[in-house]
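Quick one, tokens below. Sequence please?
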């Protein structure tokens, strides 16, 4: 019994370390989204490229941490006698008491708050990029005098008017 309890405590300590790494990664992602929006607004292509390269190099760390979390979850589920799907922080928190329960609750609360903040920041970034794409599209349409797809013009006789002034670029100087 003591050995199983020690094993569970050891696995919980490992899981807490993995969760701390998750918290660090979410904070880093929040910072990256902030940087991304700033660089897009400033139109700083060099900094955007550097940010993208940094993200590429850090992707492996995230994958390793994800694998470690899933392995610990599987091991804890096996020891506690529940399925992998049922093994959640809430379930783990109910299975222990004392300081470990407080530590798990603390990580769970922090992760929940950070996940909600990340969701909001992601939505803000998505909306900014969507607006940028829309503005760029409008600008191109106006610069190159593309006809509006949603506008239909008619002649004085009521027939559709074919636009002949829709050149790609007007080369008159």
């Amino acid at each position: 019994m003591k050995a199983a309890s020690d094993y569970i405590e050891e696995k919980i300590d490992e899981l807490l370390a993995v969760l701390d790494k998750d918290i660090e990664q979410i904070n880093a992602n929040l910072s990256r989204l902030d940087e991304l929006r700033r660089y897009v607004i400033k139109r700083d292509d060099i900094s955007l490229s550097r940010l993208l390269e940094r993200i590429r190099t850090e992707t492996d760390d995230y994958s390793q941490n994800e694998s470690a979390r899933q392995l610990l979850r599987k091991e804890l589920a096996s020891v506690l006698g529940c399925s992998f799907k049922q093994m959640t922080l809430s379930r783990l928190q109910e299975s222990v008491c004392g300081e470990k329960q407080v530590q798990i609750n603390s990580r769970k609360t922090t992760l929940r708050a950070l996940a909600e903040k990340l969701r909001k920041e992601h939505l803000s970034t998505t909306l900014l990029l969507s607006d940028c794409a829309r503005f760029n599209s409008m600008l191109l349409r106006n610069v190159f005098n593309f006809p509006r797809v949603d506008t239909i013009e008619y002649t004085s006789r009521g027939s559709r008017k074919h636009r002949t002034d829709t050149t790609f670029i007007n080369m008159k100087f």
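The chain has a mean pLDDT of 86. Residues 2-143 form one domain.
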